[in-house]
Amino acid sequence: MEPIIVSLVYYCCVVTFCELSRRFIDVLGVRQPILRHALFEFFGTLQVCTCVYENHLVTKNFGLKGFFLVVFLLLNIHRMVNRGAFISPAVALERLLSSGISVFHFVVVFWAQILGALCAFRLARRIWWIELSETHAHQAVNFDCVLSFKGPVFALIFYEFCVCFVLRTCIGIASRKNPRFSPILAAVLFATALSSEILFFGVAGLNPIIAFSRLFGCKGLNNIDHFVIFWFPAITGWLLAFFIDRSRIMISGLKKD
């Protein structure tokens, strides 16, 4: 089977399973807001993180241009079906700090994200067992994760911080200037940033929960270093941009008054 067909079938299996699960939640009539959000957060995170396991094969078969296109399309698909899931601890923290959700709500959502991230490999392996390709068959039995950075680690940390800061800043401005265009711009920016990160550092992060699902426990990086590299800079960069953006809005409002 052609690599492009294999990847398309893989992505379709993941999205279909998670979307059917979300519709089953609708059928069950779950109305409790926090429980409903947590369930959607779990399946949203599961969907995104499981798709990431196929992305490295797309890069291998079609290069960074193929990776960029796939990430751009997947981000838009995820956005259309995720039912308001954050799929990022940074976004959840932002909502908490802006009083959009309670502390309890944040904790429940955070653990839903963690569980979704942990289950992603199991779902990916079940699809690999279908043996759509020799690579899938091999990964189902002998999957191995070894990290080898192209550049210095401190440069990667700086990149994660700066890019997340810029991404949140651009998204904040775009959402006020042109809300309808903002999601498309966000997808383009994220796809570009991830492609650049792979090009210069040989690894893609930017979203801590996705990095946790795909890279936590990989050889070549201990657990503490994982959080230092993929969690701390991304979250602090995102939240710094959020605070600056919020201050800018408050100052603008005072000037109008």
From TrEMBL:
<feature type="transmembrane region" description="Helical">
    <location>
        <begin position="102"/>
        <end position="124"/>
    </location>
</feature>
<dbReference type="GO" id="GO:0016020">
    <property type="term" value="C:membrane"/>
</dbReference>
<feature type="transmembrane region" description="Helical">
    <location>
        <begin position="183"/>
        <end position="206"/>
    </location>
</feature>
<dbReference type="GO" id="GO:0005737">
    <property type="term" value="C:cytoplasm"/>
</dbReference>
<keyword id="KW-0472">Membrane</keyword>
<dbReference type="InterPro" id="IPR016697">
    <property type="entry name" value="Aquaporin_11/12"/>
</dbReference>
<feature type="transmembrane region" description="Helical">
    <location>
        <begin position="153"/>
        <end position="171"/>
    </location>
</feature>
<keyword id="KW-1133">Transmembrane helix</keyword>
<feature type="transmembrane region" description="Helical">
    <location>
        <begin position="226"/>
        <end position="244"/>
    </location>
</feature>
<dbReference type="GO" id="GO:0015267">
    <property type="term" value="F:channel activity"/>
</dbReference>
<dbReference type="Pfam" id="PF00230">
    <property type="entry name" value="MIP"/>
</dbReference>
<dbReference type="InterPro" id="IPR000425">
    <property type="entry name" value="MIP"/>
</dbReference>
<protein>
    <submittedName>
        <fullName>Aquaporin</fullName>
    </submittedName>
</protein>
<keyword id="KW-0812">Transmembrane</keyword>
<dbReference type="InterPro" id="IPR023271">
    <property type="entry name" value="Aquaporin-like"/>
</dbReference>
<dbReference type="InterPro" id="IPR051883">
    <property type="entry name" value="AQP11/12_channel"/>
</dbReference>
<comment type="similarity">
    <text>Belongs to the MIP/aquaporin (TC 1.A.8) family. AQP11/AQP12 subfamily.</text>
</comment>
<feature type="transmembrane region" description="Helical">
    <location>
        <begin position="62"/>
        <end position="81"/>
    </location>
</feature>
